[in-house]
Write a structure and sequence with these properties.
Layout: H1 2-7, E1 12-17, E2 20-23, H2 26-34, E3 41-44, E4 57-61, H3 64-72, E5 76-80, H4 81-84, H5 90-130, H6 133-153, H7 159-169, E6 200-201, H8 204-210, H9 219-233, E7 237-240, E8 248-251, E9 262-267, H10 276-288, E10 292-300, H11 305-313, E11 329-336
Parallel strand pairs: 1-5, 9-10
Antiparallel strand pairs: 1-2, 2-4, 3-4, 5-6, 7-8, 8-9, 10-11
Length: 343
Amino acid sequence: MEELRKAHPGRVPILLANGVPFLWEPQDVELVRTKHNLCGLLSGTLPLIPQQNVFLGLPLRLLPEEVVLLLRRKAAILIDEKQAYVSPNDESKVEYLKQKEQLVLEQKEEQRKQQEDHRQRVEAALVGEAGDVKALERRRARQVAKALQDTESLDNKPEANEQEDALLKMPYLHHTPNTSAEIPGYIPTLGGSPSKLQNAYLTLQSAQAAGIWTYPSTLAERARCAVFESLHSDGYFLSTGLRFGGDFVVYPGDPLRYHSHYTATVLSTPKQPMAAFHVIASGRLGTAVKKSHLICQANTLTLDDDVALERRLAGLDDALDSDQTKPWGNVEYWSLAWAGFGT
């Protein structure tokens, strides 16, 4: 992973797990928030917090529109999690077994030391209580004699292996390491590595060709991307709007500092009908949650899905020049408020 970061500085690795994009590193979450004004949704657990219905931790789950924007800005690398875990070869299997055996020996040695310390404390307590040192010495002699008898019953082995064999006979002690470590066998790669896997992608074009990221693939999804990028380019922060009855919730600044001002609903084309009761419901809902309801009409450039796929494979969706090219089309807005109803 570090080699991938060095090869492409400024790009954050987005790991796709069953098609869901995640950021796992705190520095990546900080970068996309401070530099790209993208928030995502924290979806991980916090070990020291018993009720986790408000505050959550890593990983950060990104919206599909956020992934598209980061790729178009050349600020992300898509990594296919499924292909990143490669099958070990014979050499790595042998190395793994050696490391496993070494860890077992270290754990058993640690257990032996703990047992010896415990025995010494018990003997010291017995001497202090009974004051009979000779009885304690006779007990220790019997233990030594029994140990020698057990040793003689075993096959003769080289002296170097005697301690190792004794440790292997001891009961296994589970040990949980207190530090993090790299996952062995995890190789995100752009090619040229021993795994020969193409599991990291820099553009929408390459991800579409590989079949790991096809968003946006429908007219409605392209309209959502158009609205998201239009509002984002105007300095707004966006998040999912399900809680407030829309497609997006729109903030005038960082959500840690501001309340949302709008709930946005996306219309895919200028000809998409909108029922009168939906207009009324949107206005009343916006007023009830103290937000203006924003109707976003996307004038999507490409209506046909097949033509849109051809554009994607040709790399036209990845274009992002100094004029902030928007391959999805332009957007028009109307805001609704229920006058005289709580205003």
